[in-house]
Amino acid sequence: MPHIPLKYAPKLIFYGSRNYFTSRPLVISFEVTLSCNANCVHCDLGGGVKDEKRMSPDELAKIYNKFKSPVIQISGGEPLLRRDIVEVVEKIKHNKFFPYAILVTNGWLLNRERFLKLKEAGVNQFSVSLDFPDERHDDFRAIKGLFKKLNTVIPQLAKGADGSIVLNTAITSLNVREVPKIVETANRWGVCISFSVYTPLRTNDESLRVTKEEDISFLKDIFEKCKKREGIYKSVVNSPQNLDGLFKFIRDGEIPYCQSGRRFFVVRPEGELNPCSLHRINFSNQKDMIKGFTKKNKCGKCYVSIRSYVEVSFLKLLWENVSLRVLNSN
Ligand SMILES: C[S@@+](CC[C@H](N)C(=O)[O-])C[C@H]1O[C@@H](n2cnc3c(N)ncnc32)[C@H](O)[C@@H]1O
After folding, report:
1. How far is the CA of 190 from the centre of ligand 1 (A)?
2. 69 lines ligand 1 (CB under 6 A)
3. Cβ–ligand 1 contact at 33 (below 6 Å)
4. Which domain holds residue 17?
5. pLDDT tens readout for residues 214-226
6. What is the pTM assigned to this prediction?
7. Strand 264-267 relative to strand 273-274: parallel, antiparallel, unpaired?
8. Is the beta carbon of 304 within 6 A of some atom in ligand 1?
9. How many structural domains comprise the chain?
10. 203 CA: nearest ligand 1 atom
């Protein structure tokens, strides 16, 4: 992960605290397009969206400035399908580390030139999805040649990336036994890796959930090794608390009372707000969303990154996301 120099910390801490205590979001996910060049087995999106209305970079920045969340995700669909993606990042960013910007991508359209431009514009973390340690990734995502491409591009970019590339693996029943090999792939490419867990909310496909006892205990062993940062698992960046949450979600099948709408939400391409990408209910402002959705919401059917990272106590959140990196940088 890139280190945050001390001079950038006050703004992150100020807006983090303000937003936490005033029910404003800690993370906003800008889904800048719902079109995607992939068609993943575990996802409801895939293919092009016809006549999509998209906010301009200036309009997106205007929405951001109403909330000033300390962290933003630029996601989709596939965000790199937007030709103006560099400008989107430039307009939203206030300085190098505010907001802390994570671009979530399948990496098919990533090359050195684009990577450097996006980094220069202010992307702090490139979260590149990886579901398998070989060509099965192509079948899962319906992009022929994707694994081969990542296998070439990611090691090249990793060299000058200052730790800004982090692979992201959503664990399913199909890839659970591949986790060690996926981690080895991250190590070979010279990047870190983060886990999330499959939710059936996108496709209603219960068969992709990890439910077999032997798979659950296989994962438990791996998560314990990650917590101890043992061997190949040194490159796993999930915190111990986060791994415990992921494990609880797998074991129990849910963690109720999600705070989507309050602690985080999604901005759709046309600028409407959704509580999350799994509850596509449009709101024009956050106040109505909290009243009309969050206050009644009991949903616990996902524990994807955006939710899991904001569901720790505020002090833990600050410690994990700001202080540790600031201390590490000194
Ligand atoms: C929806 S994609 C959008 C960004 C980009 N196109 C990509 O593939 O990374 C964001 C992340 O959601 C994950 N994802 C998709 N469907 C999921 C599901 N049902 N459960 C958990 N994660 C899922 C993907 O693996 C990916 O890492």
Report:
1. 22
2. no
3. no
4. 6-329
5. 999 999 999 999 9
6. 0.95
7. antiparallel
8. yes
9. 1
10. 19
Q: How many CB atoms are located within 10 Å of the residue 274 CB?
A: 21
User: Contacts by 178-186 with C-beta closer than 8 Å and gap 24+?
Assistant: 178/132, 178/133, 179/219, 179/222, 180/222, 180/232, 181/133, 181/134, 182/130, 182/131, 182/132, 182/133, 183/232, 183/233, 183/235, 183/236, 184/133, 184/232, 185/130, 185/133, 186/130, 186/235
Hey, CA dihedral for 260, 311, 105, 16, is it positive or negative?
A: positive
CB of 31 closer than 6 angstroms to any ligand 1 atom: no
Name the band, by pLDDT with cuts 50, 70 and 90, for residue 2: low
- Residue 72 CB–ligand 1 contact under 6 Å: no
Compute the distance from residue 42 Cα to the ligand 1 centre, in Å.
8
CA-closest residue to ligand 1 atom 16: 43
Specify the residue with its C-alpha closest to ligand 1, atom 20. Answer: 198
In sequence order, what are the residues at sequence separation of 6 or more whose Cβ sits closer than 8 angstroms to the Cβ of residue 92? 30, 57, 60, 61, 64, 72, 99, 101, 122
197 CA: nearest ligand 1 atom? 21
For residues 329 and 39, give the distance between their C-alpha atoms in angstroms, rounded to a whole number. Answer: 39
Burial class (CB in 10 A: 0-12, 13-18, 19+), 229: exposed
Rounded to the nearest 10°, the torsion over CA 301, 302, 307, 313 is 60
Q: Are 309 and 27 in contact (CB under 8 A)?
A: yes
Q: Is residue 1, in this structure, part of any structural domain at all?
A: no
Rounded to the nearest angstrom, the distance between the alpha carbon of 127 and the centre of ligand 1 is: 10
Asked if residues 48 and 103 have their Cβ atoms less than 8 Å apart, the reply is no
Q: In terms of DSSP bridges, do strands 71-76 and 123-129 run parallel, antiparallel, or are they unpaired? A: unpaired
Evaluate whether 69 touches 262 at the Cβ level (below 8 Å).
Answer: no
Closest residue to atom 5 of ligand 1, CA basis:
105
- pLDDT tens-digit series, residues 263-303: 999 999 999 999 999 999 999 999 999 999 999 999 999 99
Query: In CATH, what number is assigned to the domain containing residue 217?
Result: 3.20.20.70
Instruction: Give the chain's length.
Output: 330
Q: Does residue 106 line the site of ligand 1, with CB under 6 A?
A: yes
